[in-house]
């Protein structure tokens, strides 16, 4: 009875009420920021007295915003490519391999996900200061790759486990070299896993804040670091505009990923 | 690849195993090497080096730990970190359980938009969400103005740069991490058990407390532990929504390293956070198996 909506009696309205409130709670900040980014008030008054594109114009007129967006995009793309490639090799080895310590290694590959990012950030920052990678693009890419890789490994491992490897065996029996069989049979079959690995890796890098705060230099910073630095000065609506663009980008990626998943099913 | 091409299709042991197995068995470990090298060089070694600095700088010994645990200021930060995390965990569970329950019993079409919003908020940039709360909660923000407009309060409430702000901002971030696993747990419960309870004469309340809650309890405990562990290490949201009076451990680590350039103390504080996190995570694995993902 408690698990059937119709038979819950008046309780269902309590549950629906809480859920509705929680949904509004989750949605409110997102909608609010998007609305304010088009509002004319510098003091972020809601509802805004008038609508304007002023903050977007200010954002685009400031080269440091564009530069940081470009930096973020470059880093995220590099991280995505490396993360999917390494994730594929690792997942393949983990799923197919039968060697001692496999479970331990698997756990090790996922630890960057559970360790508080601030520890990794501080540790890498110290290391990068020593080897001259602090404030460089390779430094950013490496740092982001460490946190993106587990997402990639999980997505590709999942796809590989769902893939019937006898098809691959059949290809080999038909005369394909193993590497050919993997490239022409396995990779297309797990394309959806590779795609979600790419999306997750991209977002992990694109949205990464804590590592980036430590890695950034005055001349090289990512988009979130630029937001962070601006936030610490004041709550200008330009940040609302930047945030809205960031959200629009994330939503577009999520929709793309959802479509890719649907395309696989039909 | 020569060894593979030469491998016979039928093995002498009688088990027929196609030739690709040769790649799988002998060589698959090599496939892990690139990622392994990356993580050892840029993850394991730097973290170990940082922890070593806590006992080596400025001179070998445990003086950093003594300073950390002997000072009331730092102890207050530890305490505050645990308090905030516990509060966030509690509030997230109180909101998350009814939401997960509703989602599990609502028709799919009605639940879908809520799921979409949960995922959207989960993947929206952390800074963006925190910025939104900074604006919403400020003295002249929407929340205060609405409450004053309704005549409920006469003076703006202090909602930001304090415990209230951090709790709202972090609960907001943690909610999906509670709702999604709990939803999975509730979906797996067989409704027949509750029907049986009703047939045996249980009221709705009795069925909730004596049947449903015990079935969900392990999932709730797992979710609670995960949210608690994630909260302990949070940096961005407490730094922006919290005040100087309620600093959290992650901020302390950042401050030691960035503004005080005290690597010994930074390493010691990082070690404390690491031990607590890994300890609680091991406990979770032990009790509930692998469930959750990490956070920022």
Structure description:
The complex is a heterodimer of chains A (266) and B (296). Helices cover 77% and strands 0% of the residues of chain A. In chain A, helix 3 (63-96) crosses helix 11. Chain A is globular, with a radius of gyration of 23 Å. Chain A starts with 10 loop residues before the first helix and ends with a helix. With 266 residues, chain A is mostly helical. Chain B is mainly alpha-helical and 296 residues long. Helix content of chain B is 76%, strand content 0%. Chain B has 13 helices and no strands. Chain B has helices spanning 2-6, 21-56, 63-70, 72-105, 108-123, 126-137, 142-149, 163-187, 191-199, 204-232, 236-241, 249-258, 263-288. Chains A and B meet through helix 1, helix 3, helix 4, helix 5 and helix 6 of A and helix 2, helix 4, helix 5, helix 6 and helix 8 of B.
Name the chain pair with the biggest interface and residue counts per chain.
A-B, 93 and 103 residues
- Which structural category do the helix and sheet elements of chain B fall into? mainly alpha
CATH architecture of chain A: Orthogonal Bundle
User: Low-confidence parts of chain B, pLDDT < 50 over ≥5 residues?
Assistant: 1-20, 291-296
Mean pLDDT of chain A: 89
What is the CATH T-level topology of chain A?
MetI-like fold
- CATH-defined superfamily of chain B: MetI-like
The outline of chain A comes out as globular
Number of helices of chain A: 12
The total of beta strands of chain B comes to 0
Organism (chain A): Segnochrobactrum spirostomi
Domain ABC transmembrane type-1 (chain A): 69-257
Keywords (chain A): Cell inner membrane, Cell membrane, Membrane, Transmembrane, Transmembrane helix, Transport
Protein name (chain A): ABC transporter permease
């Amino acid at each position: 009875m408690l698990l059937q909506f119709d038979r819950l009696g008046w309780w269902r309205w309590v549950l629906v009420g809480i859920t509705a409130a929680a949904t509004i709670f989750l949605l409110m900040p997102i909608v609010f920021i998007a609305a304010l980014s088009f509002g004319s008030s510098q003091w972020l008054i809601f509802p805004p007295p008038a609508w304007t594109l002023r903050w977007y114009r200010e954002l685009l007129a400031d080269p440091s915003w564009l530069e940081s967006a470009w930096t973020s995009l470059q880093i995220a793309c590099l991280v995505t490519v490396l993360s999917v490639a390494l994730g594929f090799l690792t997942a393949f080895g983990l799923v197919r391999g039968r060697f001692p310590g496999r479970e331990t290694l698997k756990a090790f590959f996922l630890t960057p996900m559970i360790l508080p990012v601030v520890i990794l950030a501080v540790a890498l920052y110290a290391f990068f200061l020593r080897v001259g990678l602090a404030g460089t693009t390779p430094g950013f890419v490496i740092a982001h790759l460490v946190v993106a890789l587990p997402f990639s490994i999980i997505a590709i491992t999942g796809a590989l486990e769902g893939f019937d490897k006898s098809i691959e065996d059949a290809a080999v029996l038909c005369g394909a070299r193993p590497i050919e069989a993997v490239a022409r049979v396995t990779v297309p079959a797990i394309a959806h896993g590779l795609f979600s690995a790419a999306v997750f890796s991209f977002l992990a890098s694109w949205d990464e804040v804590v590592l980036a705060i430590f890695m950034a230099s005055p001349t090289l910073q990512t988009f979130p670091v630029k937001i962070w630095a601006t936030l610490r000065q004041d709550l200008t609506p330009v940040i609302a505009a930047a945030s809205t663009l960031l959200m629009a980008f994330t939503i577009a990626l999520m929709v793309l990923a959802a479509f890719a998943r649907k395309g696989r099913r039909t | 690849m020569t060894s593979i091409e030469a491998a016979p299709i039928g093995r002498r042991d009688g088990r027929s195993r196609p030739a690709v197995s040769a790649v799988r068995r002998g060589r698959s470990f090599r496939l892990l090497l690139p990622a392994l090298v990356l993580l050892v060089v840029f993850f394991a070694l730097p973290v170990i080096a940082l922890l070593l600095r806590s006992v080596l700088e400025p001179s070998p010994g445990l003086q950093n730990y003594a300073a950390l645990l002997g000072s009331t200021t730092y102890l207050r930060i530890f305490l505050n970190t645990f308090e905030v995390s516990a509060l966030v965990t509690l509030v997230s569970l109180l909101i998350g359980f009814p939401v997960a329950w509703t989602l599990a019993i609502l028709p799919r079409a009605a639940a879908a938009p809520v799921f979409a919003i949960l995922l959207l908020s989960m993947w929206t940039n952390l800074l963006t969400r925190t910025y939104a709360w900074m604006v919403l909660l400020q003295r002249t923000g929407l929340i205060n103005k609405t409450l004053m407009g309704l005549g409920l309060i006469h003076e703006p409430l202090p909602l930001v740069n304090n415990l209230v702000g951090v709790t709202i901002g972090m609960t907001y971030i943690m909610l999906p991490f509670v709702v999604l696993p709990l939803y999975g747990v509730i979906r797996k419960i067989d409704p027949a058990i509750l029907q049986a309870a009703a047939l045996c004469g249980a009221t709705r309340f009795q069925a909730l407390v004596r049947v449903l809650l015990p079935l969900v309890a392990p999932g709730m405990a797992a979710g609670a532990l995960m949210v608690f562990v994630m909260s302990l290490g949070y940096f961005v949201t407490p730094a922006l929504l919290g005040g100087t009076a309620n600093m959290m451990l992650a901020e302390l680590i950042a401050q030691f390293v960035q503004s005080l350039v005290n690597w010994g103390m930074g390493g010691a504080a990082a070690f404390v956070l690491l031990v607590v996190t890994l300890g609680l995570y091991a406990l979770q694995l032990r009790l509930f198996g692998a469930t959750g993902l990490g956070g920022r």
